[in-house]
């Protein structure tokens, strides 16, 4: 992947902060390929893979699936795709995810886009999404928030300390958030 000249941007933020929504806009305007780690894991469940039941149980509990499983899916998706610019949405979710990805792929992100949003707003969005996701119920949502605070925020702080995090106020209307996203991407050559 590194030899392919692959460039990666991590898109991070709490559950319901708008990662998927904004990635669709970035794909349209900046020519990236969107890889949602959560979507890849859900596709793996549907495919009936040997890991499917384990993944399904972890998602229902809001827990983080072992790195090797997620990284394999991400690597495969990047290798199969002709593009070289990828948005990796919802990964890395903990320190171990981050270190393992770097170790395995030797890729460091160009930067990390962080969608900052209050829990109150994220909860409202998730409860009204209605796409039949197993984890969009109040019990699992609370667990997802806890895991985000305890395990995922430290990853954002790690990149922030390296001056690699670009933080966007995600608690605004979709179009306004995208205006800030465009600014974050403006220094990245198309
Ligand atoms: N919406 C979006 N933006 C809005 C705005 N500005 N104003 C008003 N409404 C807005 O948006 C959520 C909802 O809000 C939508 O209805 C949207 O229209 C509306 P969305 O763009 O879907 O938000 P997103 O941040 O993508 O929310 P998502 O629920 O996908 O985030 P999660 O991080 O919780 O979910 P993910 O799919 O990444 O992971 C799910 C689970 O998979 C994890 O909990 C974990 O168990 C597992 N997982 C791993 O184990 N490892 C991984 O690496 C990744 C996932
Ligand atoms: Mg999403």
Summarize the structure.
Keywords: ATP-binding, Cytoplasm, Kinase, Nucleotide-binding, Nucleus, Pyrimidine biosynthesis, Transferase. The protein is α/β, with parallel strands linked by helices and 190 residues long.
Question: Which CATH class?
Answer: Alpha Beta
Examine the coordinates and then state which fold CATH places here, giving the name of the CATH topology.
Rossmann fold
Mean pLDDT: 97
Listed once per kind, the bound small molecules are: P1-(adenosine-5'-P5-(uridine-5')pentaphosphate, magnesium ion
Helix content: 40-55%
**What is the CA-atom radius of gyration, in angstroms?**
16 Å
CATH superfamily: P-loop containing nucleotide triphosphate hydrolases
Chain oligomer state:
single chain
Structural class: alpha/beta
Could you tell me how far the N terminus lies from the C terminus, measured between alpha carbons in angstroms?
Answer: 19 Å
For the structure shown, list the relevant keywords.
single chain, 190 residues, alpha/beta, Rossmann fold, 8 helices, 5 strands, binds P1-(adenosine-5'-P5-(uridine-5')pentaphosphate, binds magnesium ion
């Amino acid at each position: 992947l590194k030899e392919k000249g692959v460039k990666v941007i991590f898109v991070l933020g709490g559950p319901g902060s708008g990662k998927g929504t904004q990635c669709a806009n970035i794909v349209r305007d900046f020519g990236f390929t969107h890889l949602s780690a959560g979507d890849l894991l859900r596709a793996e469940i549907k495919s009936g893979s040997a890991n499917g039941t384990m993944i399904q149980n972890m998602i229902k509990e809001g827990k983080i699936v072992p790195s090797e499983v997620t990284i394999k899916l991400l690597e495969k998706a990047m290798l199969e795709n002709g593009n070289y610019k990828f948005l990796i949405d919802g990964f890395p979710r903990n320190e171990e995810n981050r270190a393992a990805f770097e170790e395995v792929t030797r890729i460091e992100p160009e930067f990390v886009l962080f969608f900052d949003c209050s829990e109150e707003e994220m909860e409202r969005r998730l409860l009204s999404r209605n796409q039949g996701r197993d984890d969009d119920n109040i019990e699992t949502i609370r667990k997802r928030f806890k895991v985000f605070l305890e395990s995922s925020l430290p990853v954002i702080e790690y990149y922030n300390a390296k001056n690699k995090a670009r933080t966007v106020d995600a608690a605004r209307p979709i179009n306004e958030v995208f205006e800030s996203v465009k600014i974050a991407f403006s220094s990245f050559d198309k």
